[in-house]
Amino acid sequence: MFSFLRRSLPPSLILPPGPSALTITRNFKRCCNFSSGVGGVDGHRAIETGWDNGRVVELTPQSMALYAIGIGAGKEKEEERYVYERHPEFIPFPTLPCIWSFYGTVLERVVYDSQMPRIEVISPYQTPIPGFPPIEPFRFLDVGRYIRVYRPLSQMGGFFRITSRHISITDKKIGCIVETEHIVTEAGKPVDDEGPEEKGVRDLLKLPSPPNKEGILARIITSCFIKGLTGFQSAGTPSEELSSKLPAHSRDPDYVVIQETFEEQPLIYRLGSGDMNPLHVDFEVAKAGGLEEPIMHGLCTMGFTARHVLRHVSDPTKFRAMRVRFSSPVLPGARLETSIWDEGEMNDAATGEKFRRFSVTTESEGAVVLNHAYVDTAV
Fold first, then answer.
1. What is the mean pLDDT of residues 325-338?
2. 368-378 vs 255-260, strand pairing mode
3. Which of 100, 236, 237, 253 lies 20 to 30 Å (CA to CA) from residue 259?
4. Beta bridge partners of 186
5. Looking at the predicted structure, is the pLDDT value of residue 127 above 90?
6. What are the distances in angstroms from CA 353 to CA 179, 251, 306, 321, 376?
7. Cα distance between residue 97 and residue 320, in whole Å
8. CA–CA separation, 211 vs 194, rounded Å?
9. Which stretches does DSSP call E strand in 20-157?
10. Given this model, what pLDDT does residue 165 score?
């Protein structure tokens, strides 16, 4: 797979793959196994910096369709509405805003800068997180994603602003967990949403303003683990959306969907999502991180299995929220099994939402890929 990407790097830049492992998961955990912290972290500075100035992204019907194809949509008739812009019910797939959730994180440049030289991808570089030292991108492990959609994206596309802030940085002794909140609004919407005293201080210090709640299209929370980044004071409060755990299942799933990913999927997904991280296509970059071969994008796996859950929803426009925790990586071509539990309406009747839990495993090995996952839909 991807043989045209097998180029040589100097031996000094390639970490030894170590002893052979039964699964790619074991290698993935080893790729960031640093024995000492790097220090020099000011977590409070990262939190106190607050909202950034935001970035504007453009979305077109063609890019919506390419994203949907990248997560495996299009083979089923009911999924034509995601991949064909002239379909009478054409809509962007609901998890699409998650593709912008690397902005403001340690991987921002690696993901979105397609001109970043390969040598820099495997070397320490200054991240956009205030108070953080230069970090090698392969220390980064994706932990989880949460997305809540308040208003669906227009089927005509448009320009959108992504505004981010770090909400918690927690020292876990062998590394740290960084949670970042992202707000998606239509570009050009007002961003003033605070009292006169707060606004006066913010204007005086020339700090960015938080996004206007009334203009919010979606809210996303990302959680990442940075191996070896430790030895500092934790700051902020972890989000309830990602830190909460679901109890073990007490019954068999209501639905099970089994579908095979395809080996070329990362090549397509990176074009539709803008996630250009070479870890998912370049053998030499994967080896530099201690992997034997490229792995699927975590957000591709998230979108791929979200399709399985939405098959059992009469109207996909009723999608409201989704949460996943990443347990292990997936190799392109793996066959995934999604188990779904229909839990009925949520306890809070005011939400008017239906709760569906799900988990994802590889069919061959039974390795858990996604867990503590759920999708909320309007009733």
1. 95
2. unpaired
3. 100
4. 160
5. no
6. 26, 22, 17, 9, 6
7. 12
8. 9
9. 55-59, 140-149
10. 95
pLDDT reported for residue 212: 55
**What is the b/e burial string over 128-159, where b = at least 16 CB atoms within 10 angstroms of the residue's CB?**
ebbbbeebbbbbbbbbbbbbbbbebbeeebee
Separation of alpha carbons 272 and 264, rounded Å: 13
Decide if pLDDT at 314 tops 90. no
Nearest to 164 by CA among 52, 240, 311: 52
Closest CA to 341 of 219, 255, 220, 279: 255
The first and second tokens of residue 308, run together, are: 């399985």
Find residue 320's DSSP bridge partners. none
Give the pLDDT confidence score for residue 344 in this predicted structure. Answer: 78
Nearest to 232 by CA among 38, 48, 50: 38
Q: How far is CA 94 from CA 88, 189, 334, 367, in A?
A: 17, 21, 24, 26
The highest-confidence range among 122-126, 200-204, 278-282, by mean pLDDT, is 278-282
CA angle at 214 for the pair 128 and 210, rounded to the nearest 5°: 30
49 DSSP assignment: T
Radius of gyration, CA atoms only, the chain: 20
Which residues, 6 or more positions from 352, have their beta carbon under 8 angstroms from its beta carbon?
345, 378, 379
**Using alpha carbons only, what angle is made at residue 328 by residues 78 and 318, rounded to the nearest 5 degrees?**
30
User: How far is residue 139 from each of residues 262, 345, 360, measured CA to CA in Å?
Assistant: 27, 40, 24
pLDDT tens per residue across span 71-98: 999 988 999 999 999 999 999 999 999 9
Three-state SS at 89: coil
Integer Cα distance of 297 and 331 in angstroms: 9
Give dist(CA 231, CA 228) in Å, integer: 9
Between 7 and 101, residue with greater pLDDT: 101
Nearest by Cα to 322 from 253, 241, 247: 241
Tokens of 335: 């066959």
Contact call for residues 269 and 275 (beta carbons, < 8 A): yes
Q: Residue 368 phi/psi, 5° resolution? A: -75, 125
